[in-house]
Amino acid sequence: MSFVAQKKLTLFDYVNYSLLALISIVCLFPFIYVFSVSFTDPKVYIPLKFYLFPDKWSLSAYQYILSTNSFIHALKSTVFITVVGTILNLIVSFSFAYVLTKKTLPGRKILLGAVVFTLVFNAGILPSYLLIKQLGLLNSYWSLIWPTLTSAWSLLVIKSFLESHPPELEESARIDGCTEIGVFLRIIIPLSMPAIAAFMLFFAVSHWNTYFNALIYISDSKKWTLQVLIKSLVIDSDSTGVGQAGAGGDDRIVPQETIRMAAIMLAMAPILLVYPFLQKHFAKGVMLGSVKG
Q1: PANTHER family in the record, alphabetically (predicted)?
Q2: How many angstroms separate the CA atoms of 231 and 204, rounded?
Q3: Distances (CA, A) of 257 to 22, 34, 245, 277
Q4: For 267, how many CA atoms within 13 A lie in the half-sphere containing its CB?
Q5: What is the pTM for the complete model shown?
Q6: Across residues 10-30, what is the average pLDDT?
Q7: Tens of pLDDT along 22-79?
Q8: Domain boundary assignment for the chain
Q9: Widest CA span of the chain, in angstroms?
């Protein structure tokens, strides 16, 4: 019988763990405050008071903001951009990366060099804006999707992952009569599910948090994303229209702070709910392509 010797904790370990625990608790305070204020009854809410727990629980702020047209429009816009953008990201990234793994592809080095070139050089904000304008994509959801169909980092990581697959699998499929598309769909995609799950979460979080591009490309308030709406709520709330009466002619007065916190919680909730279930795929999906065996 063998026993695994346990490492004895030193003073440094205790101090290190204590500091990490303290920092973690401090980082949680803003989330606790946002959560508590969003569920605080407007009648007992006191500005500039720290709420560890609501003095009186209430859903008034959530009912109020969910009854406003501006939040519903922003939610629909964000969901559309996230769903469509993520699907297109996966299709373009994995198909392009698969092509780059083919050493017999004419012009492969040029394509690969162009991808690596974008890691170092960027056109900048002004040329990107002029390009979107010339393409007629301003005030369109596609202005937030087309420019981000893929990235050099994603392509290189996925390419490395695909190259780790045994080439004998593809050769066997071709002997059985599979075309290149058939090999990609029937062999490569099923073997790449861990990487697909990881990058699906990467892309979805990126699209859900779209802010800067939406700020410069979208001027129609009905097409704002959630992040732009929350920015308007927190910084220039007078111009959002969220403070107007809710549906059904409700004249209740809800403190602006509780509305802001409720909007922030609603924007964070989908990612917070999905992330724990897919988080394990982050390291697994990326690390599988880091070492060839």
Answers
A1: ABC TRANSPORTER PERMEASE PROTEIN MG189-RELATED-RELATED, POLYGALACTURONAN_RHAMNOGALACTURONAN TRANSPORT SYSTEM PERMEASE PROTEIN YTCP
A2: 20
A3: 28, 9, 16, 31
A4: 26
A5: 0.79
A6: 89
A7: 998 888 888 888 888 888 888 887 776 777 788 888 888 888 888 888 888 999 999 9
A8: 61-293
A9: 75
Per DSSP, the residues of 178-221 read --HHHHIIIIIHHHTHHHHHHHHHHHHHHHHT--HHHHHH---G
Determine whether domain 61-293 maps to CATH 1.20.120.1630: no
Structure token pair of residue 113: 């060099």
116's tokens: 């690596």
Structure tokens given for 67: 């009854």
The position carrying tokens 């469509």 is 84
For the chain, the distance separating the N- and C-terminal CA atoms, rounded to the nearest angstrom, is: 33
Cα–Cα distances (Å) from 239 to 231, 236, 258, in that order, read 11, 6, 17
- Count how many residues are written for the chain: 293
Q: Cα 51 to the chain's mean position, in Å?
A: 29
| pLDDT top residue among 89 and 25 | 89
